[in-house]
Amino acid sequence: MPRSNPSIPKYSLHKPSGRARVRIGGHDIYLGAYGSPVSQEAYNRVIAEHLTGGVPTARPASRSTGGPLSIAELVLRYAVHRKASKLSPATFAKVDKPALRRLRRLYGTVPVSEFRPTSLRAIQRRALVDEGLSRQYVNKKLTPVIKRLFRWGLAQDLVPADVVTRLSVAEPIKRGEFGARETEKVKAIDDAVIERTIADMEPIPADMVRVQRLTGMRPGEVCAMRWAEIETDGDIWVYRPAEHKNAHRGHDRIITLGPKSQAVLMRYRDRPEDEAVFSPQLAAEERRVRRRAARQTPLTPSQRARDSKRVKSRSTGKGQPAAAYTTTSYAAAIRRACERLEISVWTPNRIRHTTATVLREQQGLDAAAAMLGHAKPDTTLIYAEQTLEYQTDLARRFG
Description:
- Helix content is 54%, strand content 6%.
- It contains 16 helices and six strands.
- It is mainly alpha-helical.
- The protein has helices at residues 37-51, 71-85, 89-107, 117-130, 135-155, 161-168, 191-199, 203-215, 219-223, 259-265, 280-294, 301-316, 327-341, 349-363, 365-372, 380-398, and strands at 12-14, 19-24, 27-33, 230-231, 237-239, 255-257.
- A hairpin with a 2-residue loop joins strand 2 and strand 3.
- The radius of gyration is 27 Å and the shape is globular.
- A three-stranded antiparallel β-sheet has the order 1-2-3, covered by helices on one side.
- The model is unreliable at 1-6, 60-65 and 376-386 (pLDDT under 50).
- Helix 2 packs antiparallel against helix 3 (89-107), helix 7 runs antiparallel to helix 8 and helix 8 (203-215) runs antiparallel to helix 10.
C-alpha cells in the first residue's frame, strides 16, 4: 500500500464501489480496484502530477489485447529494437534503461496517446525530489531518453504526432526548481594526489590509473582493454576499442600508447588475447600470493580447508571475482585508497580531465582534442587519419 503523508492526499477506499480513490481539490479521482497494482500505480501518477501543479487524472488503461497501445508496450518494442540494432548497448544499459524504467513505473498502463508534458514533468519531479537525482542528470540523461522513445514511436507509426510535438516544447528543469540538486563540475585532479593514491592501491588498479593518465582514455576504455584490440606493430601501439561512447554514431576511437604506457602494459603481456588486460581475478590471486609470502606462521587445518574450497571454486568459476573491472569496481579501488589515506575521494573521470588540462596548457587545444578523441562532426571523415598521425607523434613524445 502507498505510504501516507499528512501533506499528500491519501490513498483510500470508496466502500460502496470497492474502488481506490484520492481526493484532490474537493474532487474524488477513482484509481481502480482497491489494493491492486494498477490502482497504486495510478495513485503514484496522480500525486506526482498534483505536486507539479498539473491537473491530475487517473487515466486507467486496459491491458487487454486489442486496446490502445500502452506506454509499457511501447517501451518493450523500443527495447527490442535497440537490442536488434546493437546501437551502443553500454549506453542503453546505463542511460536508457533507468530512464525507461522510471517512465514505465509511473505511466506503464497509460495509453501513449495520453502522455503529456505534465506527465513528463511528474517524472522529472519524482526523480529530483523522491530519488534525489541531480538537475543535470534529469535534463541531460533522463528527459532526452523519454523524448527519443516517443520520436521513435512516431517514426514507427505507434505514437500520434501531436504527442511528440507537445513533448518537443517541454522545457528543461531550471536551476532551483523543485529544490533540484546541482552537481559539481568535474575538475582535474592534481598529479601529486594521483601519485599519492597510486602508492596505496593494489598493483593492478594502480596500473590502470597510470595508463589512463598517460593516454587520457575514458574509465570504461581502460577497463575493457584486450590485447586483441591493441596493434603492437611499430614503436607506437594503437588501441581501437570495439565498444566505446560514440561507436553507434560510426566514429572510430583511436588511442595511441607510447613508451611509458607500453612499459606498464608489458607486465600483462601474457594475458589471453580475448580477455581483459586488467583482471580482478588476477588481482585477487596476486593478493593471496602476497599474503602467503608475508605469513610467518604455518597454515591451520581450517585455513587449509578454506584454500581447498577456494581452489575448487576457481575451477567452477562460482564465487570468483569478475573477469574484468567495471567503471564501478575501478572507482571503488580508488575510493578505498583515498579513504585509507584520509584524503578527498576522487573518481577516474577526473584523470581524463587532468590529461586534457595538461595537454592543453603544454600543446594547445588541438592536441588535447586529438589525444582524447574529440572530433568535429563536419570533419569526421578526414579527421580520423589526421588524428592517428597527430596522436602517434604526441604519444611518442608524451605517452
